[in-house]
Design brief:
Elements lengths: L10 H11 L7 H7 L3 H4 L1 E4 L2 E4 L7 H14 L1 H9 L26 E4 L2 E4 H21 L12 E5 L6 H11 L7 E5 L4 H8 L7 E6 L6 H18 L4 H4 E5 L2 H7 L6 E3 L16 H7 L1 H20 L6 H15 L4 E6 L7 H13 L17 E6 L8 H6 L6 E8 L5 H20 L3 H10 L4 H7 L11 E8 L2 H22 L10 H14 L9 H15 L2
Parallel strand pairs: 5-6, 5-7, 7-8, 8-9, 10-11, 10-12, 12-13
Antiparallel strand pairs: 1-2, 2-13, 3-4
Helix pairs in contact: 1-4, 7-12, 7-15, 12-13, 13-20, 14-20, 15-20
Bound molecules: 6-O-phosphono-beta-D-fructofuranose.
6-O-phosphono-beta-D-fructofuranose binds next to loops.
Length: about 550
């Protein structure tokens, strides 16, 4: 697989890895276990309790050395230094990607460059955190109340993409069992059914609305923010609106234009990308619902992973190894999908969160210099909580024609008292990974059917359907407990994995031009749908608009 001229990967390294994959038996994971009795230990790394076991992949010692060489020779060390120094790694937008400063200590003095202007990112983040903390305390104590004098019992976060997925995922994970200090609700979809359904069980007098939007121009979010404003005003009067709204944004002018007072706006800077913003004021719903201590613990976890990523040798570095395993799968073995199975119902939204993080960051096909890439970039990422996934798409992962590597996530200790249920959950997680590895041979199936009294004809007809090829790869990410600290470590683990992969693929992980065209075209289509100018569209779109109008006219 030749490297593009601007890719940091050399063609020689790609070829070396491809040659390793092509060795006879190299992709036989079961044989790798047979050849190395200590394989599990050799291919497991940990940061305290947080353990990554990638032994159930077709990576042997030689391959691992080659992958680590790839990282070193590509200059990953230098990239990591530039990233943490706040250099403008987001080249198309002339910005640093300095979300790490949001979880740094106030005196860490991490710098970030925006269009060539440097600022003390740690200080800026810490100052805003102090304002957030005061706001959260005032809401919790009842010092800040709704217009009718009632204390807030619900926070409604209105945002989409990074302004929704991170805070929603974290809030749901951290309040699933405890219930949290306030109820949290999330409104992202512009589909009016979403607000209609949500507002049914909201009391406007007790609802605090957070309009979360980095740009404060996103059509979906602004439409929903206006819907919530109208809903509040209809119930409590126009004068009540100010007491019920706060904004989480970088756009002070647009926030003021919406009518939210400056002291109710919590900001962050353009060196924070939307999908990396849960650590910023965009995490306000987390702090309100799960509590300030939980929000701080989340940041502590992120900071612990930053320190590990920065200091650990690549051979012991969790984000680097996770990234290299992913590159081995996507580029060398050609696997085009990646599945994330959290055996933890509190992480229901984790795959959705990762979909944006991974696919919006690395779903790119030109290098940083604008040349087409000549290798695969981000695979399709999807997932569901285990064990639910076992009863839907796992059939394909076990027996389908595509090989889909899986990340399993599991906490050893549950936060409920039904330990027997947790053991069943854990048994299922381990069993799935084991089944993917071990598979089931035709001979085994035949023997079992024979032992159960099946006839030769039955065996011939049925046995092939019950064969599993096995040798299907997975990572196991195992940790003690899913608390806020560990969730912070997990998020930062994947953030850095994405950054490492983007760097090795030679692409910019920090812009997202691919979502722009749809936004522009939707704006252009609105007049046609509301009956004004038809506009010039392709034949299919024109015909569909006409049919849409016809159907709307029908009773
Ligand atoms: O979906 C595209 C996107 O630009 C994401 O990157 C971002 O997280 C989301 O829109 C929301 O943007 P904003 O926070 O500006 O409303």
């Amino acid at each position: 697989m030749p490297a593009t001229p601007s890719s940091p990967l050399t063609a020689e390294l790609w070829q070396r890895l491809s040659a390793l994959a092509a060795r006879p038996g190299a992709q036989n994971i079961r044989a790798l276990f047979a050849a190395d009795p200590a394989r599990a230990r050799h291919f497991t790394v940990a940061l305290d309790d947080l353990t990554l076991d990638f032994s159930k992949t077709a990576i042997d010692g030689t391959t691992l050395v080659a992958l680590l060489d790839l990282a070193r020779e590509a200059g990953l060390d230098g990239f990591r230094t530039r990233l943490f120094a706040g250099a403008e790694v987001n080249l198309t937008e002339h910005r640093a990607a300095m979300h790490m400063a949001l979880r740094s200590r106030a005196d860490a003095a991490m710098q970030a460059s925006l269009g060539g202007v440097w600022e003390n990112a740690s200080r800026i983040a810490a100052d805003e955190r102090t304002r957030m903390c005061e706001f959260v305390a005032a809401v919790h104590s009842g010092a800040l109340r709704g217009a009718t004098g009632l204390a807030f019992d619900t926070v409604l976060n209105i945002g989409i993409g990074g302004s929704d997925l991170g805070p929603r995922m974290v809030t749901e994970a951290l309040t699933a069992v405890s219930g949290g200090q306030m109820r949290a609700r999330f409104l992202s979809n512009v589909d009016g059914h979403s607000f209609a359904a949500l507002s049914r069980d909201l009391d406007p007098a007790r609802t605090l609305v957070l309009v979360a939007s980095k740009t404060f121009t996103t059509l979906e979010t602004m439409t929903n923010a206006h819907a919530a404003r109208d809903w509040l005003a209809a119930s409590l009067g126009e004068a009540a609106v100010g007491a019920h709204f706060a904004a989480l944004s970088t756009n002070a002018r647009a926030v003021a234009g919406f009518g939210i007072a400056a002291e109710r706006m919590f900001g962050f800077r353009d060196w924070v990308g939307g999908r990396y913003s849960v650590w910023s004021s965009i995490g306000m719903s987390v702090a309100l619902a799960a509590g300030w201590d939980a929000f701080e613990a989340l940041l502590d976890g992120g900071r612990a992973m930053d320190a590990h990523f920065l200091s650990a040798d690549f051979a012991d570095n969790l984000p680097v190894l996770l990234a290299l395993v992913g590159i081995w799968h996507a580029d060398i073995l050609g696997y085009r999908a990646h599945c994330v199975l959290a055996y933890d119902d509190r992480l229901k939204r984790f795959p959705a969160y990762l979909q944006q993080l991974e696919m919006e960051s690395n779903g790119k096909s030109v290098t940083t210099s604008g040349a087409p890439v000549s290798h695969a970039t981000c695979p399709v990422v999807f997932g569901e909580p285990g064990t639910d996934a076992q009863h839907s798409f796992m059939q394909l992962i076990h027996q389908g024609t595509s090989i889909v590597p899986v990340d399993f996530l599991l906490a050893a200790q549950p936060d409920h008292s039904r330990d027997a249920a947790h053991l069943i959950l854990a048994a299922n997680a381990f069993a799935q990974a084991e089944a993917l590895l071990a598979g089931r041979t035709l001979a085994d199936v035949q023997a079992e059917m024979r032992a159960k009294g099946a006839t030769d004809a039955e065996i011939a007809a049925i046995a092939p359907h019950r064969v599993f090829s096995g040798n299907r790869p997975s990572n196991m990410i195992l940790f003690r407990r899913l608390d806020a600290f560990t969730l912070g470590r997990l998020i930062a683990l994947y953030e850095h994995k994405v950054a490492v992969q983007g760097f090795l693929w030679g692409i910019n992980s920090f812009d997202q031009w691919g979502v722009e065209l749809g936004k522009v075209l939707a704006g252009g289509l609105l007049p046609a749908l509301s009956g004004a100018a038809a506009g010039l569209h392709d034949g299919s779109t024109t015909a569909l608009i006409a049919r849409f109008h016809a159907l709307r006219g029908q009773r």
